[in-house]
Design goal:
alpha/beta, 2-enoyl-CoA Hydratase, Chain A, domain 1
């Protein structure tokens, strides 16, 4: 891929053309890409440039048919402490076009950040936040823009901006309230506490927890690969209905009605329904119903044929 990034590391899947020729040799085993924040010496702290690169990377992936899901994470190369992102880099140079003493300029600065966060949230394909370590402030707000959250057991989440006399204005208050409820969001924003991955699992933000290391990496790969092999059109409609339709229930119900028309006519829907009724020769016993030692095949129970799995193509 010719596109280069200063603050992100991108891992791509292999891409092929319609004739089956490899046009990009990737390193990811699945129909998904990995975006890693690559600032370990700053605990993956965020600047305007870092967040803008997220938007640029996602635009490249939006119409790439080889990418049907994205994993967003901190770099695996840990130099200080494990961190998804500790939030805004308060030592970063400020936009010279804006004067911090002018309220309107600060509103414009936040509009820039919201534009990029909104683009991440509205990305049409599933995004998994793979969190290992700190997800604080703007880093926690970045997690809130994702669809699925998988965390290590050593991860910590928090909105500590109150301790600096400010508040989580990258959409953090609003998105957090929609994910874990108003009372819990108020507690997080008003007291600035750190909360464990276990607590965030109980509160509903985190979907899965695993021990840091190989078990976490296997879990992230398993879930990303599942999404990458799943019916993309259905995932697209589900994401829109849940994240945006729930803001106004009647609109969400209408989105479901219209979305079902879109999904039902897709190849993946036809394949999924056909596969439900399709039977194939059992691969374990070769369609014999018995093993070489004469015992009944446990995979098909002696039926010789089993239900086929659907083979989705995505968009």
């Amino acid at each position: 891929m010719a596109e280069e990034f200063e603050f992100l590391k991108i891992e791509w899947p292999t891409a092929v053309d319609k004739q089956g020729n490899v046009i990009r040799q990737g390193t990811v085993d699945g129909n998904y890409a990995i975006i890693s924040i690559n600032r370990p010496d700053r605990l993956n702290a965020l600047t305007d440039d870092v967040v803008a690169e997220f938007s640029r990377a996602l635009r490249l992936m939006e119409f790439d048919d080889s990418i049907r899901a994205v994993v967003l994470r901190g770099t695996k190369e840990i130099t200080k402490k494990p961190s998804f992102s500790v939030g805004a880099d308060l030592a970063a140079r400020f936009d010279t076009r804006l004067n911090p003493s002018i309220p309107r300029h600060m509103s414009q600065a936040m509009r820039k950040r919201h534009r990029d966060y909104d683009e991440i949230e509205q990305f049409p394909k599933p995004i998994i936040a793979a969190v290992d370590g700190f997800a604080l402030g703007g880093g926690c707000e970045l997690v809130l823009c994702c669809d699925i959250v998988i965390a290590t057991d050593r991860s910590e989440f928090g909105l500590p901006e109150i301790n600096r006399g400010i508040f989580p204005a990258n959409g953090g208050i609003t998105r957090m309230a929609s994910r874990i409820g108003v009372n819990r969001a108020l507690r997080m924003a008003m007291f600035g506490e750190h909360h464990s991955a276990k607590t965030m699992l109980e509160w509903g933000l985190v979907s899965w927890i695993a021990p840091a290391g190989d078990e976490f990496e296997r879990l992230v790969h398993e879930k990303a690969k599942w999404l990458g092999d799943a019916p993309t059109t259905s995932l697209f409609i589900i994401k829109k209905c849940v994240k945006f339709g729930t803001r106004y229930i009647q609109l969400g119900l209408m989105m479901e009605q219209l979305g079902f028309g879109e999904v039902f006519t897709s190849f993946d829907a036809k394949e999924g329904i056909a596969a439900f009724n399709r039977r194939i020769k059992c691969p374990v016993c070769g369609g014999k119903g018995k093993m070489e030692d004469g015992s009944t095949c446990k995979n098909c129970g002696g039926a010789k044929r089993i239900k086929d799995s659907p083979h989705y193509k995505g968009i």
